[in-house]
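ok so I'm stuck.
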Amino acid sequence: MWARKSHTVAPYNLIIQRCMRIQIPLTQRTFSQAAAVAVEEDPQQPNADEYPKPDPKYSEIIRGLPRESSGRLVAAKLRAKGRIPSIVFGCENGEEGGNKKLISVETKQIRNLLRKVGESFLLSRTFDMEVKAAPDSEEIVEKGRVLPRLIHINRATDEIVNVTFIRAPPHAQLRIDVPLLYRGADACQGIRKGGYLNTIRRTVKFLCPADLIPPYIDVDLSELDIGQTLLMRDLKVHPLLKLLKAKEDWPICKIMGSKFKAQQAGS
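replied:
not stuck anymore, here's the structure
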């Protein structure tokens, strides 16, 4: 049986609006008891409330039904009925492991989540999931918290082909591509002088405790001048998050000189 707890993240456009206005606080979320105890016992531990939290406003339970088989014909029949063939995996070393379960989920629900949250933000947050025994049954055969790992979309038709989930109990360590949220461009010294933002990275991979997955990472541009660069080490994240597939001195963005001046220099 999976542990039950869910978190959410606000849609990308809404987050940007809030961050540009700066003064609108983000809703707090509850973290694991272990993290809370660590903060209580050790005053040197960071306050979890200092970091972005998913907004409970967008919390919902993903409802699934078991399926006994896979294949193109089965998948096509499911999609015709308004359902998406899906798989739920266990978690090993932060990645998909064993204990595979074949299910299907509602197309309408997943499409609405994509619309409200955005694809990259959807893949960096957890949801509660309940799997019923049958469509007309109230019996729940499995429930717990999951992380959407992969959403396969046919870009030509916009059809959601399948969804992969990974179980996310409180003790799990999950490999997450956390989105970077750039803000403060309106106050950025370098941009005001005619420079422009060169965005090098839009996500950064971290190994995250399931209860400490950030919905995004704030990147504050307001103090940057032309020629200045922000590095991985400048990202403000909880110290229990471990940076993966990158080094601390790798750049994430840079304020470049004026495009017009750069063109003049090259001519």
